[in-house]
Amino acid sequence: MTHALPIRRDARTGHHLDVALRLASGGLPVLPLRAGKVPVGNCRDCADNACGGRPNMKTPGPCACPRPCHAWAAATTNPNILASPAWGRVWRQAEAVAYCPGGAGVTVVDLDNAAAVAWARKTLPPTRTVATTRGEHWIYRGTVRSVNHVRDGVDIKSLMAYARWLGRGIGATALLPSSVLALVEKAPATARPVPGAVTVLAPAGGGACRHRTPAYLERGITMAEQRIADATSAIHNTVYATFLAVLSTHGRCGCLAEAHIARLFTAAQAKGESPRHCAEAWSNALTALGI
Questions:
Q1: Which of 39, 142, 151, 268 is deepest in the core (most CB within 10 A)?
Q2: Is the dihedral of CA 44, 49, 53, 58 positive or negative?
Q3: Virtual CA dihedral for 252, 253, 255, 259, nearest 10 degrees?
């Protein structure tokens, strides 16, 4: 049996840490959020995943670093980690508590406005709901890959993602419905364009295609989206490096479509990048590769 290490509480650490410890004791992997509802940035040793990070894992759990690094992957149920001195300094600056839905075996359908809530009430089976600032979280049993903007005002948060803890909500938690799975499956072709986005055409190609199946390209785009989503520092550099990596593999054969580029731009803009910067980073990557 483990026992949480003692930590000196004050008005800033006490509330969020107490909430986190209570949730963790119930099996919910939790982490602190700073201002803006974002995770704490990686420490110097873990910046840009210099430590190796957890690039291929879908369940939470930090690297060997004692600090809460690697965004969603920092989520833990271990009270010794949550109440450690290294985390104590973070709790003093925390603005909220978050959790990794996929690590808890659930999926959050994040409804960001009244229209999205109305759509869910008409389309999805009833389940546990939690009120948010602008809408609702609908929580289902089961996991799926996380995708933003599956339709207007709707994000899917499950594996390799985090959601803000806003209370237990009301209602019984239903099984993840096929209608949500369908949204995730068709997300690449129907992702909502970001207002003001800059249109960028895919490379025309002309080289020999090494890609034997569409799954190879899909896996590459999904990994690129996740690399951008996981970045907690040096966002500009991460976006450019990711664009460069995608183009170096898929940019010359003609299989890279505008829908794939839209997914990458959406991921970058979700991290705060402007449409103009995305276009410039894409153009610079094309130029660097001579495409």
A1: 268
A2: positive
A3: 10
With H, G, I as helix, E, B as strand and everything else as coil, classify residue 150.
Answer: strand
| 280: number of Cβ within 10 Å | 15
- Higher-pLDDT residue of 242, 216: 242
Residue listed under structure tokens 């930590």: 7
What is each CA distance from 188 to 77, 140, 193, 221, in whole angstroms? 33, 22, 11, 10
Helices 258-270 & 275-289 angle (0-180, nearest 10): 130
pLDDT tens sequence across 207-219: 556 665 667 788 8
Instruction: Identify the three-state secondary structure at position 139.
Output: strand
Report whether 48 contacts 238 (CB < 8 A): yes
Percent of the chain scoring above 90 in pLDDT: 34
Beta-ladder partners of 106: 141
Alpha-carbon span 217 to 202, nearest angstrom: 14
